[in-house]
Amino acid sequence: MTDDTTANPADDELLDALYDSVLSGDADSAIDSTRAGLAAGLQPLSLLFDAMIPSLEEVGNLFESGEIFLPEMLISARAMQACMNILRPLLADAASSRIGVFVMGTIAGDIHDIGKNLCDVMLEGAGFEVIDLGINVPADRFVEAITEHQPDAVGLSAFLTTTMAELATTIDAIDAAGVRGDTKIIVGGAPVTQEYADQIGADGYAPTAVSAVRTVKELLGMGQS
Ligand code: B12
What we know:
By secondary structure, the protein is of the alpha/beta class. It is built from nine helices and five strands.
């Protein structure tokens, strides 16, 4: 994911240690590896995309195949979130001025928020004011937030195939309430695809937090940076 993955074996060892710590849900050692990685000059995005996210991906695989259960998945998620707390200020630091308002939330029935929170951080880093409605957000709460904040864009996050239809319900509710106007709606989350986004009438889709920033800026005619 990051451009230059490490050429240095010591860096690879740090990334491997971080991967293993998140996998086993050992928050203390994940925090130690994160700090050691930063001290060794590794980029926050490399720690995320070359270690933590692949590790959670593997956690998901092990859960799916019945090798681990919900509590293990939860402690891995907590280990990752502990590391995110260290990285967040480093990632969100870049913006010097506000370029727009973004409303974000995880759709109703879904409590996954790590990917969404990562998008928040990257959008804030790019200069957006992010109003995060949290998890398990019903469609009418999105409608209220659009009415209240008049955002440039709205992000809907979904991680379960069983509740993905709620993306369509939410977009329909926004349209039915007549509040969509020029607000762009962008969808994302592990099971979401461009094809699905097109099918339900979203304005955009992005597979990662990094590409989410790019896509939102494109949709808003802000060009590239
Ligand atoms: C951690 C985790 C949990 C944690 C969540 C903790 C939290 N605070 O988020 C806990 C343990 C609570 C959990 C619970 C459940 N989970 Co869960 N979970 C995961 C896991 C392992 C990782 C998800 C994650 O955070 N990944 C890290 C982030 C960074 O992922 P990412 O996709 O790369 O995120 C990027 C993009 O998606 C994108 N993005 C995200 N949001 C948005 C929004 C917008 C607008 C845009 C543009 C982009 C975007 O940007 C992100 C950053 O680059 C996944 C496995 C997987 N492969 O996804 C299963 C997984 C999602 N869970 C699953 C399941 C089944 C469940 C449960 C139903 C289990 C149960 N029996 O109770 C419950 C559901 C509870 C509920 N109602 O929501 C399944 C879903 C299967 C399916 N097909 O629907 C998965 C795929 C595991 C599996 N392989 O079976 N889970």
